[in-house]
Design goal:
205 residues, single chain, mainly alpha, 2 domains, two-stranded antiparallel ribbon, 68% helix
Length: 205
């Protein structure tokens, strides 16, 4: 209600954790499921599913980033999801609201105008009709990401087989992980073996 709906939190976090395909699927699927549950399935549903799915695609930009930095970088993306996707959602009904002919200025929709001017009219329409709601939705998405984002991203990346490499582990040539303490013990063992061998040679001489 009035934008107080963190609907983009789940697809955004899934996109950050599992990539574009999973993020888009979860976003579009969540939109379809919620519409069916509240009985609001209508003609604009495909466009709404596309907008929700794009939230997951936006989150997928952070897939290569380690978990904690990705969580922090997802904050501005969460806020932007509100107004940016709000403009996209407005595209669903905007062209049919009071469409006019070239030369008339009573409507934001004027067929035949250059693309840049049409985009300006769309943005102006969005600011006038839904910017407050879209910003509220973006802030709610940010709140959800701040509250549950870090553990959610960590858990989802582990579930999808993309955990971060631990800081106390060193990758070997074959890609396995070995503790630095074990590496140090091996070095010490080699050093002692070399010293023992040197002592044996000196005794033999």
């Amino acid at each position: 209600m009035f934008g107080v709906e963190p609907v983009f939190v789940l697809p955004l976090l899934v996109g950050v954790s599992a990539g574009a395909s999973a993020g888009f699927f979860v976003g579009a699927g969540s939109c379809l499921l919620s519409s069916m549950l509240v009985d609001t399935v209508a003609a604009p549903l495909p466009g709404q599913m596309l907008a929700w799915g794009l939230t997951g695609l936006i989150g997928a930009l952070l897939v290569p980033v380690p978990t904690k930095p990705a969580w922090l970088l997802s904050w501005p993306l969460a806020v932007l999801c509100g107004p940016v996707l709000g403009v996209m959602l407005n595209l669903i009904g905007w062209p049919t609201e009071g469409a006019s002919t070239v030369g008339q200025t009573t409507s934001d929709v004027v067929p035949g105008l250059p693309g840049t001017i049409t985009i300006q009219r769309l943005i102006r329409y969005s600011v006038r009709t839904s910017l407050g709601i879209d910003l509220t939705r973006g802030v709610c998405t940010l709140a959800g990401v701040v509250l549950v984002g870090l553990p959610a991203i960590s858990a989802l990346r582990t579930a999808w087989g993309r955990p971060d490499k631990r800081a106390d582990e060193t990758p070997t040539a074959r890609g396995t992980l070995i503790n630095p303490a074990a590496v140090e013990r091996r070095k010490q063992s080699r050093t002692r073996a070399m010293e023992w061998s040197k002592d044996q040679k000196e005794d033999a001489e």
